[in-house]
Amino acid sequence: MLRAPGGRRRSRVPLLLLAVLLTLTGCAGAGALAGGERTLVIAIVANPQMNDAITLSDRFEREHGVELKFVSLPENQARAKITASTATQGGEFDVVMISNYETPQWAANGWLTDLGPYLEANPDYDADDFIPSIRESLSYEGSMYAVPFYGESSFLAYRKDLFAKAGLTMPEHPTWQQIAEFAAVLDDDEAGIAGICLRGKPGWGESLAPLTTVVNTFGGRWFDEDWNAQLTSPEFREATKFYVDLVREYGEVGASSAGFSECGTRYAQGQAAMWYDATVMAGTNEDPASSKVVGKSGYVAAPVVETEASGWLYTWALAIPASTDNADLAWEFLSWMTDKDYVRLVGEELGWNRVPPGCRQSTYEIPEYRRAASAYADATLDGIRHANQDDTMTRPVPYDGIQFVGIPEFQDLGTRVSQQISAAIAGQQTVDEALRQSQSYAETVGESYRETR
Questions:
Q1: pLDDT tens, residue by residue, 88-115
Q2: Are 260 and 197 in contact (CB under 8 A)?
Q3: Please, are residues 259 and 203 in contact by the beta-carbon 8 Å criterion?
Q4: pTM to 2 decimals?
């Protein structure tokens, strides 16, 4: 892993962030909601895979004699609510949906239940079946503190029929410059087809996820080894200008407010020729119940410039807050929803394209899934396999993460920077103006790390 000596991430909660969290935290705990009965309160991010879990959850309720209460929110709101409750030990939730960004930090802070004892007591659950990089990203000091529901890297989906019609050929490993050329040819305002769909919605987990991978492969980074902010460096500026110009010229209408869900809808409805985003998108693209482009897409590696790869590594996972009084029951739910049997349940009940991808190696050995996911299974695994700092960055950095900076302050910093970038996408300011302001935000964070090294 590329990391500067002495640059180990510290676990801490910035006072400003904690003050914000305190204002967001609700006062009702999960125990109070339960009223003495077997009830679990589960905070999740609203997305298709989690909606499927809710649909199937009555099986767990019947088998275990428990009532499940889901609190489902859009990503940005869910992050704020879950962070607030967990950081302040509010006891509001028994299970929380978090990612590999939060898990190591929160484990170090003592906010999460160590799942190691549960895994050791349940060998049939087979934690060794998880893809190693995904499992490692949810671990702290050798023990897992969250279990993955689905994992992902990022890749590019493209309409094979539109490429053929235009006489274009997509390389297996395209460059961003090639993608921009394709987008210019395929952008068709009259037909209502954007050349490409890219996230522009504010949020450190929204627009900054794809943008940061572009920054990485252009040779940029958020901080150098000494925590000096690099957002106005030539490489960071070139990457950001490329991204903003691409989406402004050939991207979707309303790009400054488009996130994963909005781009997913547009692509599935045939309104974009290409879409760069999370590998988990493929299941929705190929679902006949929601997509008009089933069977029309190809999937290739995340575009690059100076690096071997540029895909991110991410997993939505389930964890148990240390504050819950229902840890054992919460584990029963976690192990049900992330077990091999759940994969088969989704495939058989809802369709194999809706199986949560990118977590268990055994999923890719199921014949029905291999057939359903033939267009994207290998591309997904390849993306996850190459999602490491050595393959996706050009120079050392003092932080963990590919599409995020693995420090507590990044929730606030990333959100502020994303707002500046979205304003540039909307044409409200220039890229240089956006980056100058963003640099000042990052300098404040970097200075605090230099002072305590």
A1: 998 999 999 999 999 999 999 999 999 9
A2: no
A3: yes
A4: 0.87
Provide the token pair at 185: 């040819």
Contacts of 101 (CB under 8 A, 6+ apart): 205, 314, 401, 404, 406, 410
Are both 139 and 158 inside the same structural domain? no
Rounded distance, CA 344 to CA 330, Å?
21
Q: Of 9, 38, 53, give the one whose Cα is nearest residue 317.
A: 53
Q: How far apart are CA 99 and CA 319, in angstroms?
A: 9
CB 434 within 8 A of CB 421: yes
Residue 194, domain CATH: 3.40.190.10
CA distances from 78 to 10, 24, 266, 408 (A): 24, 11, 23, 16
Q: Which long-range contacts (CB under 8 A, 24 or more apart) does 123-126 make?
A: 125/335, 125/339, 126/340, 126/362
Q: Which range of residues forms the domain containing residue 54? A: 15-151+313-374
The answer to whether residues 173 and 130 belong to one domain is: no
The span from the CA of 284 to the CA of 422, in Å, is 26
Please report, in angstroms and rounded to a whole number, the separation of the first and last CA atoms in the chain: 20
Measured distance CA(116)–CA(127) in Å, rounded: 10
- Amino acid at residue number 139: S
Separation CA 22–CA 323 (nearest Å):
16
Give the pLDDT confidence of 397-435 residue by residue, as tens digits.
999 999 999 999 999 999 999 999 999 999 999 999 999
- Please give the full DSSP string across 260-314, using - where no structure is assigned: HHHHHHHHHTT-BSEEEEETTHHHHHT-TTT-S-TT-EEEEEPPBSSSS-----E
Distance between CA atoms of residues 416 and 134, nearest Å = 28
DSSP code string of 58-104: HHHHHHHT-EEEEEEE-HHHHHHHHHHHHHTT----SEEEEETTHHH
Residue at 381 is within a domain: no
Point out the domain boundary residue: 340, 374, 408: 374
Euclidean distance between CA atoms 78 and 295, whole angstroms: 33
